[in-house]
């Protein structure tokens, strides 16, 4: 991997609810040591069943970052002491944010109709249950607040959602769990750029890449204002959003038509 220019190595310290063997401490310690000897960094995916114990040992093993929060129980004083004594270790919380009607409305222009319908069905099922409190989210929220207060570096991750709306949902979750709107914005811009070694991105400044968005309202007043986008600039050039929207709608229409075609059997 080093020979191919890879900088980050991700390890799964997770048995996937007993479905796979979990990587053992002697193995991930060897991986971390070998990666560090080659100037590489190691990121750990934490499980939902033994995350606290694993995270503590990973700290001692020299891990560089976590792509989830501890999510099996509330973090304790011992863990927070490790956070305080390892100031360069970061986390991408990946808050378990449920899909909302606002998200669907924002994505309806571009996602396939079948995917939009699946999202709507999921919301209807949730509403039929009376929207009970999300215990997993609340656990994440408590732990995010604690590690933030302990000084942990917090970036922003969406756990693979490529719809563009996940980032806004994550920032809203961060503010709901104790971070200020500006801290949430910095997590997804300047902090992420530093974590990923993207030294020309993350801030608006001379000699930087000049990729940014222009908003119609102040996100410091309400983090949801990050969704009120007036203009988008990539490398100093304004994106023609109307043309892009038309292109995506045509692609969506074409995909939907293909799915509706029935081919005769041979």
Helical content class: 40-55%
Estimate what percentage of residues fall within beta strands.
5-15%
Q: Report the structural category.
A: alpha/beta
Largest sheet: 5 strands, parallel
Regions with little confidence, pLDDT below 50 for 5+ residues: none
What is the string of SSEs from the N terminus onward?
EHEHEHEHHHEHHEEEH
Distance between the termini: 47 Å
Which strand order does the major sheet show? Answer: 1-2-3-4-5
Number of strands: 8
How would you describe the shape? Answer: globular
Provide mean pLDDT, rounded. 90
Tally of individual helices? 9
Radius of gyration: 21 Å
Report on the architecture of this protein:
44% of the residues lie in helices and 11% in strands. By secondary structure, the chain is an alpha/beta fold. It has a five-stranded parallel sheet, sandwiched between helices. Strands 6-7-8 form a three-stranded antiparallel sheet, with no helix packed on it. Strand 2, helix 2 and strand 3 form a beta-alpha-beta unit. Helix 7 crosses helix 8. The longest helix has 20 residues. The chain is globular. 25% of the residues are buried. The mean pLDDT is 90.
């Amino acid at each position: 991997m080093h020979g191919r220019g890879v900088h980050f190595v991700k390890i799964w310290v997770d048995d996937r609810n007993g479905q796979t063997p979990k990587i053992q401490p002697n193995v991930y310690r060897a991986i971390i040591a070998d990666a560090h000897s080659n100037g590489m960094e190691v990121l750990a995916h934490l499980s939902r069943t033994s995350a606290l114990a694993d995270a503590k040992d990973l700290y001692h093993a020299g891990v560089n970052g976590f792509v989830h929060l501890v999510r099996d129980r509330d973090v304790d004083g011992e863990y927070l002491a490790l956070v305080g004594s390892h100031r360069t270790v970061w986390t991408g919380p990946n808050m378990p944010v449920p899909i909302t009607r606002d998200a669907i409305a924002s994505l309806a222009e571009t996602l396939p109709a079948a995917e939009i319908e699946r999202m709507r069905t999921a919301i209807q099922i949730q509403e039929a249950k009376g929207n009970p409190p999300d215990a997993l989210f609340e656990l994440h929220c408590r732990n995010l607040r604690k590690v933030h207060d302990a000084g942990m570096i917090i970036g922003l991750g969406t756990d693979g959602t490529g719809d563009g709306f996940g980032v806004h949902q994550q920032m809203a979750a961060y503010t709901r769990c104790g971070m200020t709107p500006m801290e949430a914005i910095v997590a997804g811009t300047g902090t992420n750029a530093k974590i990923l070694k993207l030294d020309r991105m993350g801030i608006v400044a001379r000699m930087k890449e000049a990729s940014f968005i222009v908003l119609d309202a102040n996100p410091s007043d309400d983090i949801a204002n990050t969704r009120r986008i007036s203009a988008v600039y990539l490398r100093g050039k304004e994106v023609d959003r109307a043309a892009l929207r038309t292109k995506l709608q045509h692609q969506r229409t074409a995909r939907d038509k293909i799915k509706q075609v029935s081919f005769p059997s041979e």
